[in-house]
Amino acid sequence: xxxxxxxxxxxxxxxxxxxxxxxxxxxxxxxxxxxxxxxxxxxxxxxxxxxxxxxxxxxxxxxxxxxxxxxxxxxxxxxxxxxxxxxxxxxxxxxxxxxxxxxxxxxxxxxxxxxxxxxxxxxxxxxxxxxxxxxxxxxxxxxxxxxxxxxxxxxxxxxxxxxxxxxxxxxxxxxxxxxxxxxxxxxxxxxxxxxxxxxxxxxxxxxxxxxxxxxxxxxxxxxxxxxxxxxxxxxxxxxxxxxxxxxxxxxxxxxxxxxxxxxxxxxxxxxxxxxxxxxxxxxxxxxxxxxxxxxxxxxxxxxxxxxxxxxxxxxxxxxxxxxxxxxxxxxxxxxxxxxxxxxxxxxxxxxxxxxxxxxxxxxxxxxxxxxxxxxxxxxxxxxxxxxxxxxxxxxxxxxxxxxxxxxxxxxxxxxxxxxxxxxxxxxxxxxxxxxxxxxxxxxxxxxxxxxxxxxxxxxxxxxxxxxxxxxxxxxxxxxxxxxxxxxxxxx
Length: 491
Description:
By secondary structure, this protein is mainly α.
């Protein structure tokens, strides 16, 4: 477990200090591939029959004076995010193989550091350790946007992202400190010595309802910015247009804010979560409806995909707020889907940008005639994103809608409306951009997917189809963890 955190971090240092650019690329590729293998071994060792328990736990003293530990492990909720995140990083790394022409070693080093920090977020079971990795993700993203962004306002986008994320970290840190102090007060000891930030320990620590409400609001605010949810969403469309494609793919594929809500916010404050589930449901419904209506008006493909990502996050939050098995499992499934579907759509948009210099609708049209392979992949991921049967998007979206209908008819109707709007904006753009007559002369000379790009998209495409036909392979792993999660909130 420590290896999946340390390997990318050490690989990033090695790639950054290697003088030869070609060797730095090879080191990054080797480390990313090795990381994927390591995460698959973790899944192999994971016992789904004990999926509600934390497994492969490692615990070491880190800051003994404050009882902060290096405590990591996985359960049925988190384990599948490891290989999916590793696969996404590998795909993003390969996609940027020839597109980065300056500071190449630094670029690949930052991608690996970001991967190591992401793995830390996914496996951390000490709240201060989680916060360390949460903040460690920010510097690589800031430099990736500012140094390699393709838009004229990339430095402004980098600063905007950093300010939003720094703001989100403040309420999280306050909440974690309050949790540790509450544990010390409940155990009757002195605050420095009896502090505890261990997630399993905090789950069993008594907390008054008033304190739960405060901590829930703090955690909701912090994670809502990262998710992002309305009204904290504006950083993502800006970043999607200005940032390099591979980074945008990582940002839309790794929804750590929604993961944090599912992993920490709800279980740590069960009474407040049940009390304010309706607020969470309304916030999610507003997010996916508002973002879907904005997406309908977009003429830029990258911006459309950013709003589509925000809309889908809103639906995930609705699933979490349903407090039933269908909603919870649908939310987990959809978060996993982001690493395959949303990220690959962004990568394909990047391929179009690289060839035509734009993803504005006015420069597109008739792409299917000259780029049939790219169009086929885009269409597959597009229909998966709107939940067409036979793709992994269908079981996830079906569970989310059923969960919403079960929780409240009004919420279910809103979820159905969101699904309809999603199909409207996606299929409408596909029709205008890929089919019909060629309206721009540069489209005639454009090249279809190269062999490397074709191979890059094959694995995610096959996984989308595979999990579409065999969704139980995912749901069986998280079933017991979801039941335990739900039991904590409803008991």
